[in-house]
Amino acid sequence: MKILRVLALNFVLSLLVILLVAGLLWLDRLWPALLPAWAETAAIPLFVLGSAMIVWAVITLFQHSGTSGAPGDPTTLLVTSGPYRWMRNPIYAGDVILVFGVAWFTRSPTLLLATFLLLPFLDLFVRKVEEPRTAQRLGEAYTEYLRHVPRWFPRRPKE
Questions:
Q1: Considering only CA atoms, which of 14, 13, 6, 147 is closest in space to residue 88?
Q2: What is d(CA 95, CA 110) in angstroms, rounded to the nearest whole number?
């Protein structure tokens, strides 16, 4: 039953994101011009990098904790391998890179602007909501992890 609830929640959230992006793309008609044509080509590495980060992170979470980390399916074990050795939020980072790729591919100034505006809200959510909840759930090991692994920008782990 839990799996159905998780799938339903993630389906609804995905649908909301798709509708939001569609609405932002519709707003592009208010701009005098779209992003330059070369932006479509520049989007390809962003698609690849964002998608690879998300897939690697989800596979790592599932292999080590048996969960996806998606809303409704939080991990109950601290995962510090794979991309989680390099940064704390590889799924969110991959999502942002992927949305930047969509903005460039669609040549959408509205979506590009919205993505930049989203960044401080995402950071605030992670700092004020997600990290405190995860610290409560996972305890001191997570608090120690916070001290050693950067939130957003990957850094080579100390051996």
A1: 147
A2: 17
Question: Would you place residue 159 in the very low, low, confident or very high pLDDT band (cuts 50, 70, 90)?
Answer: low
CA 28 to chain centroid, in Å, comes to: 24
Which residue in the block uniquely carries the two structure tokens 């929640």? 9
Name the DSSP class of 88: S
Q: At what angle do helices 109-125 and 90-105 cross, to 10 degrees?
A: 170
Is 49 within 8 Å of 86 (Cβ atoms)? no
Q: Write out the residue range of the structural domain in which residue 78 sits.
A: 2-148
Residues with Cβ < 8 Å from 135, sequence gap 6 or more?
A: 142, 143, 146
Residue 72 above 80 pLDDT?
no
Length of the chain: 159
Kindly state whether residue 159 falls inside one of the protein's structural domains: no
How far is Cα 9 from Cα 7, in angstroms, rounded to an integer?
6
153 lies in a domain? no
What is the number of structural domains in the chain?
1
Whether residue 115 contacts residue 24, with contact meaning beta carbons closer than 8 Å, is answered with no
Q: Give the model confidence (pLDDT) of 37-50 as tens digits.
A: 999 999 999 999 99
On whether the CB atoms of residues 123 and 152 are closer than 8 A, the answer is: yes
